[in-house]
Amino acid sequence: MLNFFLIFLMKSGQRCTAVKVVLVMESVADTLVEKVKAKVAKLTVGPPEDDCDITPVVSESSANFIEGLVNDAKQKGATFCQEYKREGNLIWPLLLDNVRPDMRIAWEEPFGPVLPVIRINSVEEGIHHCNASNFGLQVKSSALSL
Prior knowledge:
Blueprint: H1 2-5, E1 22-25, H2 26-41, H3 60-75, E2 79-80, E3 86-87, E4 90-91, E5 94-97, E6 114-120, H4 123-132
Parallel strand pairs: 1-6, 5-6
Antiparallel strand pairs: 2-5, 3-4
């Protein structure tokens, strides 16, 4: 199951079908975040010719957009599971926990190696969040033991 969440990193998150946000029940959120964080820590970052897991995003302007989302989340209190690191248009993978609806990254697609985690307390809360989006969504629902 954890490999599903790491799909957000394929092509450095620059795929239309990449995971863009994770809604997770509060009761299992800590366990899930720790497991994903451990997987992220093992990823390699660098140029594509070195066969790295995470490679540069498509342009400097794309990297600037992603950084704007990250900075907004930081200002509003998201938990950074890794240190934010960027060199030009190379952005290291970043898992953001405790993302709230008032943060841009809860609604705007980063199209990069950043994965926001929104903790919810009910299925209805998750459905409400999805229905509040201005964009079409694909959903993967899972019931799993962590």
